[in-house]
Structures are given as structure tokens and as C-alpha cells.
Design brief:
Blueprint lengths: L2 E10 L2 E12 L4 E5 L4 H4 L1 H11 L8 E7 L11 H11 L5 H4 L3 E2 L2 E2 L5 E2 L4 H10 L4 E5 L3 H4 L6 E5 L2 H7 L36 H13 L2 E5 L6 H7 L9 H14 L2 H6 L8 E2 L7 H5 E2 L5 E2 L1 H4 L4 E4 L7 H6 L1 H6 L1 E6 L2 E6 L3 E6 L18 H9 L4 H4 L1 E6 L5 H8 L9 H18 L13 H6 L9 H8 L5 H17 L7 H11 L8
Parallel strand pairs: 3-4, 5-8, 8-9, 10-17, 10-18, 11-14, 14-17
Antiparallel strand pairs: 1-2, 2-4, 6-7, 12-13, 15-16
Helix pairs in contact: 2-3, 8-19, 8-22, 19-22, 22-23
Bound molecules: zinc ion (ZN).
């Protein structure tokens, strides 16, 4: 046999294409040719494959080896094809059984010593293979746990090329491939496990606002001086969000798999809790939104998919970076253009922003401690105005907890009924009512519902919105502001277990919504 086939997967974004690898051995002078649009990193596969095969005791034949990756039009990047190329050549060479090789998807990078190394994106690759009808995969042992998250696919983990060759019938001494036994996975990813809202002293209004944000999926802005607890509150938002659905968990885990993120590497498990990402304000566009050279990688806004993205000191972020958030906030995904095509990364995150009230941070109360010029103060928060702010339903002013609250908290008095577990239960119940009310629409949480639908289909009883209608008539709030109030009011009703709006819901919404522009508060 001088011609054999093996199979791998090429990823662009979360989408994968099955790649057929044909290996042919002819009697010409020894050489190694790789065709079918490989990028530079893949071209280096030749050297890795040759050395790995040699060091596994199964050297490549001293003849001409041609490897063709098809379809040729699909770009192929990175080192994940090494294993499939090596085993394909061995099949063509008659060292292993070709019919066994071509039954399996092979994913993995080869070390020069013949070790099979982990690669990013194994979970989405195995998902893509399954969609294409392939139900058997051999992956690096380092990626075995994530590959096994895909239901209905038989997965084996390889430590060395020699093992894989042995599995396919080579008569070399090697241990067996490993099936997954669950021991490598820690039950819960490490992030945010121990943060609880019970730790927050005072700030009852902020906790209430955070509860509404969680229940309705509302984006939120907190403005307050340093020490008011903005970061502490933000870090605890995931603790009151419901678990991810299986679908959401797989999508988010796949994004973490492609990026090779730490959370994913540490656990290898399915991310069942909402992720939390808090980029520094110096973060680059690529690290935030995604992209990069070679195979595009998801940015932090995609790693926060179905979770929380917290921008601390939001006005300090570069304007283009803030602007780049708009499209994903609208569509729930990031598109990265490449000559080869468009990579799509989901980015359905809940945005939480924090800002100091002014550049020096001390403009609170009567503002006596502030040293900023009035114009500088306005310009500072003004950086957040415009289309981004339009998406923020909750705008909250925070003050530091006062000494009486701190003293009470030391006595354990203010934290009753306020643990994250208790609030999460309320949030879950509220989300059930909103999805029941929105059944048959494309939306499940209140933050997604457009203004027109709120005003027409979900019309409140006469009189309930009187104060709000009045304010619009007198030009005190804009129509957008009006819609934001209605959205928040419904979340308030959901949290209280009511199926109709009451005037209190509206009042609470008006309070939490803040003004239309940053200058009004
Ligand atoms: Zn100031």
C-alpha cells in the first residue's frame, strides 16, 4: 500500500471543517512534500513528524512522501495536524493498518521526541467532527477531559506517537491509549468559588441593583469614589447568576479551549458557572475583542460569554476599545475578518462598568475634597456617553459604607438574608417568570426586550406608569430612558413574584436607572 488517508479538523472561530489527509509514498528520491494551503507553522510539521517518527522507532521511509491536505481551499493553521499526518504516512508505508487509521479523527502536536502534546481548541474540534458524522477521536492526553465533554463520541488519549501506532497495529512496544476515567478533572473551576455578597458591608441599594441586574440580565454602571466597594460588588455578580445551561456551558468551554485560558487549563472541566473577566484599562483591542496573528483567538469579551465582563475605571479605557464593544453588545458575537474567511466568536456577556466620579476620585457628597476642574469632571464621565451608555439599564451612584454600617456589620447585623445563595434562588425564580412571560418571543430575559414590545404587548394597567408618562410629556426623560425604566420595572416585578407591574416597580426603576446623560448625576 502506498496511499492512505487520515483525518483531522481545522478550526476557524468555533466552526470546524473536517480535513482529509492523503499520504502517498512513491519510489522517487527521498523528500517530503506538504500541499494544500498549509501556513508556516504547519509547514514545520514536516520536521516534527520526521523527528517524532524516528524517535518512536518507526522512521519514515527513505522515499518520496507527499502529503495532501484537502479541501485545499480551507486554511489550515497550527500544529494540531501533526499526529494525523504522521499516522497517515505510517499507514501508507504499511507500518499500521490503514483501515483502522481512517476510522478515527487524530488531533495533536508532536514533540521531536515522539510525545503527543496538547493543543488549543480540542473541544470545538471534536464537536465539529461529531457534526460531520465522526464518532471516534484520538486526542492528546492533556486534552482528553475536554474532548470527553462531547456526548456520543468515543475518545482515547495519547501520550506518544508510538502508542497511537501500536493501537493501529504496529508491532512496536508501547502502552495502550487511555480512556477517560474522570480523575484529571477538578469538580469546580477555581474562579469566584468563595466570593459571597454577605461579605459586602452596607450598600443595600447596590446589592438590590446587582440583584436586579442578575435577574434581568441588565448591564450596569456604578459610579462612586475609591473604597465604595465597586470591585467587591462586581466580583460577586457571578455568584448570584444561575448555572449555565448545558448548551451555554459547552459553547463557553469551547471558547476557553481555543484561547488556552488558565481557567480551562487548570480544570479541563465543563465551565458550568458563569465566567468572570476583568480586563485592565490598558488592555489592547486584540486581547479584549479577539484576533491576533495566525489562527484568530477569542478575546476576553468572548471568554466572558454567558458571564460577566467587568470594566473597572471604564473612562480610562481607550475610546476605540469601548466603541468596539458596541457591536458584540448588540449581536452577541464578534466577527474577525480574515482573508480565509470570517471567524465568529460568541460574546454574550453581561457588562458591568465602574467609574470614579471624577479624575481625582473624590467628588462625593458636596464634592469638597475634589481637586478637579468642573470641566475636567464632566469630560471624564463624558467619555462613557453615547451609544455604549444607551445599552446600560442600571446606573448607580455609590457612597462608601459609613462607620455605623461598618460597626453593625462587625456585630453581624446587616448580613441577614443576603447570602449569594439566597439571592441566587430569588434570581432563578425571577428568570423563570420572565421566560414564562416571554415564551414564544426570541427573548428570555428582560434586558433583551425591545422598547416597542414593552410598551405595546406588555402594557401595564392604567395609572401604574402615570408618573413615568408624565415625566416623558414634560421632557424630563427620553423615550429610551422610558423603555429602560419599563425593562427594570418588569425585573422588579419578577423578583417579587408578581405578574403585573405596580407603581412601586416603576419607582424603583426610576431610582436605579439614573439620568439619561452622565452629567445629570
Ligand atoms: Zn475630582
Amino acid at each position: 500500500m502506498s496511499l492512505a488517508k487520515s483525518y483531522c479538523v481545522s478550526l476557524l472561530g468555533l466552526a470546524g471543517t473536517l480535513i482529509e489527509i492523503e499520504a502517498e509514498i512513491s519510489s522517487n528520491l527521498p523528500s517530503f512534500v506538504l500541499v494544500g494551503l498549509p501556513d508556516a507553522s504547519l509547514s514545520e510539521a514536516k520536521d516534527r513528524v520526521r523527528a517524532a517518527a524516528h524517535n518512536s522507532g518507526l522512521p519514515l521511509p527513505g522515499r518520496r512522501v507527499t502529503v495532501n491536505l484537502s479541501p485545499a481551499s480551507v486554511p489550515k493553521r497550527g500544529s494540531a495536524f501533526d499526529l494525523a499526518i504522521a499516522i497517515g504516512i505510517m499507514a501508507a508505508n504499511g507500518r499500521v493498518r490503514p483501515e483502522s487509521v481512517s476510522e478515527w479523527i487524530h488531533i495533536g502536536e508532536l514533540g521531536l521526541d515522539g510525545a503527543v502534546r496538547g493543543v488549543p481548541g480540542v473541544l470545538p474540534s471534536v464537536l465539529a467532527a461529531k457534526r460531520a458524522g465522526w464518532l471516534k477521536a484520538i486526542v492528546p492526553i492533556a486534552n482528553l477531559a475536554e474532548a470527553c465533554l462531547v456526548d456520543g463520541v468515543e475518545v482515547l488519549g495519547a501520550e506518544t506517537l508510538a502508542q497511537v501506532a501500536h493501537f493501529h497495529g504496529a508491532e512496536n512496544p508501547a502502552s495502550d491509549l487511555q480512556a477517560f476515567n474522570g480523575s484529571e478533572v477538578s469538580a469546580e473551576p477555581v474562579s469566584q468559588v468563595n466570593l459571597d455578597l454577605a461579605d459586602v458591608i452596607g450598600q443595600d441599594e447596590a446589592v438590590e441593583a446587582l440583584t436586579l441586574a442578575a435577574a434581568g440580565g441588565h448591564h450596569m454602571l456604578m459610579v462612586g469614589p475609591p473604597g465604595a466597594g465597586k470591585t467587591m460588588l462586581a466580583e460577586r455578580l457571578p455568584s448570584i447568576l444561575p448555572d449555565l445551561s448545558v448548551e451555554a456551558a459547552i459553547e463557553t468551554t469551547a471558547l476557553h479551549s481555543i484561547s488556552g485560558s488558565k481557567v480551562h487549563e487548570v480544570s479541563g472541566a465543563l465551565l458550568t458557572r458563569p465566567p468572570y473577566e476583568a480586563p485592565h484599562h490598558t488592555a489592547s483591542m486584540v486581547s479584549l475583542v479577539g484576533g491576533g496573528l495566525g489562527m484568530p483567538k477569542p478575546g476576553l469579551i468572548s471568554l466572558a460569554n454567558h458571564g460577566v465582563l467587568f470594566l473597572d475605571e471604564a473612562p480610562e479605557f481607550q475610546r476605540p476599545v469601548l466603541e468596539a464593544m458596541r457591536q458584540p453588545l448588540e449581536s452577541g458575537e464578534v466577527l474577525i475578518n480574515r482573508s480565509a474567511g470570517i471567524a465568529r466568536f460568541p460574546a454574550r456577556f453581561q457588562l458591568l462598568m465602574a467609574a470614579n466620579p471624577c479624575p481625582c476620585g473624590n467628588f462625593a457628597g458636596k464634592g469638597r475634597a475634589c481637586v478637579c476642574a468642573p470641566a475636567a469632571r464632566l469630560a471624564y464621565l463624558g467619555k462613557l456617553s453615547g451609544p455604549l451608555l444607551d445599552r446600560i439599564d442600571i446606573r448607580l451612584r455609590l457612597q462608601p459604607a459609613n462607620s455605623a454600617q461598618i460597626a453593625l456589620a462587625r456585630l453581624g447585623a446587616t448580613q441577614l438574608g443576603r447570602t449569594s445563595a439566597e439571592i441566587r434562588a430569588r434570581v432563578e425564580a425571577a428568570r423563570k417568570s420572565s421566560s414564562r412571560r416571554l415564551a414564544g418571543t426570541p427573548w428570555t430575559i428582560n434586558a433583551q426586550v425591545p422598547g416597542a414590545y414593552l410598551r405595546r404587548q406588555l402594557k401595564a394597567k392604567a395609572g401604574v406608569t402615570a408618573a413615568l408618562d408624565n415625566a416623558v410629556d414634560r421632557g424630563l426623560i427620553s423615550m429610551r430612558g422610558y423603555d429602560r425604566c419599563l425593562r427594570l420595572a418588569w425585573t422588579s416585578a419578577d423578583l417579587d413574584g408578581r405578574s403585573q407591574l405596580v407603581a412601586e416597580d416603576i419607582a424603583k426603576a426610576v431610582l436605579l436607572r439614573g439620568g439619561d446623560g452622565v452629567t445629570s448625576w
